Amino acid sequence: MTALLPSEDEVKATLVERIEDLPPFPLLASKLLVSGTPGETVTRIVSTDPAIAQRVLQIVNSAPFGASTRFSSINDTVDRLGPEKVRSLALNLILFDTLINRLTTSKFDRTVFWKHSLALGGLARALAEQLDYPDPEEAYTAALLHDIGKIVLDVAGRIRYGDFLRELKNYDGPVDEQERDIIGLSHEDIGAYYCHHWHFPERLVLTIRFHHHPFDHLKLDPDTSLLIAIVAFADFIAWCLGFGSFDTLRQPILNPDVERHLSVDSIQLTGLLDHMDRDLSVAAEHYGFSHPSAKDFRERLLRTNIHLGQINTRYYYLHGDLQEQVEILSRLKDSITRPHRSLDADDIVSNTLEAIHDDFGFDRIIAFTIDATTRTLKPTAFKDVTGLGAAIMDLEIHPDSSDGQFVECLRKHVPVLITGRNQEEANVLSFLNTREIGIVPFTSNNKIIGVLGIDNAASGKAVRLSDLSMVSIVANELGMALEHARAFEQVQQRADFDGLTRAYNRTAIDRLLAEAYEDAARGDVDLSVAMVDVDLFKAFNDQYGHLAGDSILKLIAGTLIKFSRPTEIVGRYGGEEFFCILRDTDMEGAVNYGERIRTKIEDLGYLLRNRFPDHELTISIGVASFQAHIRVKEELIDMADQAMYAAKAAGRNRVMIGWMDDTKNMHIEKPNSVKS
Fold first, then answer.
1. Among 16, 399, 485, 616, which residue carries the largest CB count within 10 Å?
2. pLDDT digit string (tens) for 605-617?
């Protein structure tokens, strides 16, 4: 068992106090954790605490509980309901008093957490009954305790769970992955360690540890595997219904091993929901919290389903089934090969538009490219059989003027359907005299270089999202063909990204900077760069170890990427250094960029201060901009590098400017916006 748990050193690095110094798990609750306890023993254990016994009787005699006759004593209750039911009721009350009611004020909403636990308990018990699990009350107990690690982290974590949740909104992906990166360990890790330390039954510990993760490789006994699957699926349902352990809406992810142990399609979901609703009604009256009305429940369910629908739609159109893609490719043979029949960029675009028209029959296809100077989308070619006479080449789209679908397309590299949800979109549709237009990006070296617009203004046929998915395949070929034409050689697949941080690697940064430098040297665009270095990183690695150092580099890279614009390129330059290419950015913009990311990392460091108490996480940044008398890109790099070292020498956690006069003398200055 211990091999499946975090080490003592990992736990010490995550918690402020030693696990031995935390408040002990209540003795009465420990006695009630053992399933199969005889009725006489349950009666004796519960009766030793008159307050708990009295509250059990209050619950079973309440109107929501629905008993036909009153219960006179704990002994009477055990005789009529059975020892397991009474054991669960008493355990429920003790856990509430211990985990929820007696804890200090926190940014982590314990009422929301407890509602989630109760909802999960009801779902797990009902699911266990449907699946003939030998002890449904054990499933209820496991569900109540499955997230106990979140409470431990909120009480004793160097980074309290409430503080973590505030930072979580800046990140996508599974919560437990972000917990490990930011806190150090996940709630499953800490919960399982805590429960093992307090001698919980092994089956409960394993359920707490693996309800989010694959477990079949452990070759557990069938009942343990089924219990984990029950709790994992109940958790999935609760999040789908909007009953999460915190109020931030997150996409639920089902443990991949669950469906090997239960058939999702055969589960009677109505029965599960009825059981959950009854349990929540009883709990709402006893604990004094509000129980969602039917209207509240429908709204919560609808909001969750909308969120899931958005995710599923994105997944469907970006990660379609392989067989479907094979079928699509077989139908698009001409469209995906025609872009490669020439090395002339104009021919490639016109051939592609003709092929799309021939294969799909769209009334109009327009190729737009991005004007780096004005940050607009401008037509470069079109195929138009509408007969509407629109002056297409005069059209100019301003994506930055709204937060609509154009921005979604450019930022996330995904196809979108424009239907006029904001003024800019409405202007485009009015100009083209159409009610909708599909926009599909095409890229080169993972950078958007243009988009295809498709519509059926004359025929009135709807542009389906499945159409956009297929055109995306052609657009991908178009992007590659244009790269071939530009370089006069076949594009070589390169490993552009750093394996640890997912930022661009040094090779990619050198290539992308060379391209940007050439554009700046021609006078086409402004260009600035930023050299970013993690302060005192070697000392951090020496003190906390390379695994902690790796997690910090991942967090910093993720923050840099998230708070950079689509035109700003972030790469790992080496070790703890990052390099940012800022196209269309002058010196003032570069300083603002540097201050923006410096502040974000400083905020992240403040969150991590308890996890790493002897080290403040900050970065030093040097920025430089292209100047007409610079002859090679290496001079631009050197200016930023020297400015970065000057920022460190000046006390770290600041931005400095590097520039070169026309006699090639280097100058380092402090921006006016930066205060010492």
1. 399
2. 999 988 888 889 9
Q: How far is the first Cα of the chain from the last one, in angstroms, to the nearest whole number?
A: 52
- Quote the tokens at residue 177: 């992955």
- Whether the pLDDT of residue 4 is over 70: the answer is yes
pTM: predicted TM-score of the whole model, two decimal places:
0.60
What SS3 class is residue 580?
strand
Task: Give the per-residue SS3 of 100-139.
Answer: HHCCCCCCCCHHHHHHHHHHHHHHHHHHHHHCCCCCHHHH
Residue 591 burial (CB < 10 Å; 0-12/13-18/19+)? buried
Beta partners for residue 530, in sequence order: 580, 623
222-240 and 202-210 helices cross at what angle (nearest 10)? 40
Place of tokens 């203004």: 457
Residues pairing with 319 in the sheet: none
What are the tens digits of pLDDT across the range 501-533? Answer: 889 999 989 999 999 999 999 987 899 999 999
Phi, psi of 313, deg, nearest 5: -65, -45
- Give the other-Cβ count within 10 Å of 520's Cβ: 22
Q: How many residues does the chain have?
A: 676
Q: Give the angle subtended at the CA of 663 by the CAs of 662 and 668, to the nearest 5°.
A: 80
CA-closest candidate to residue 280, choices 142, 123, 87, 77 = 123
Of 397, 398, 396, 363, nearest in space to 382 by CA: 363
Q: By C-alpha distance, which of 123, 462, 379, 95 is closest to 262?
A: 123
Domains located in the chain, CATH noted: 2-312 (1.10.3210.10), 326-487 (3.30.450.40), 506-669 (3.30.70.270)
H or E segment to which residue 545 belongs = none
The token pair at 493 is: 């697949």
d(CA 571, CA 9): 32
Sheet holding 437-444, edge to edge: 376-384, 364-371, 447-455, 437-444, 416-418
How many other C-beta atoms lie within 10 A of the C-beta of residue 131?
18
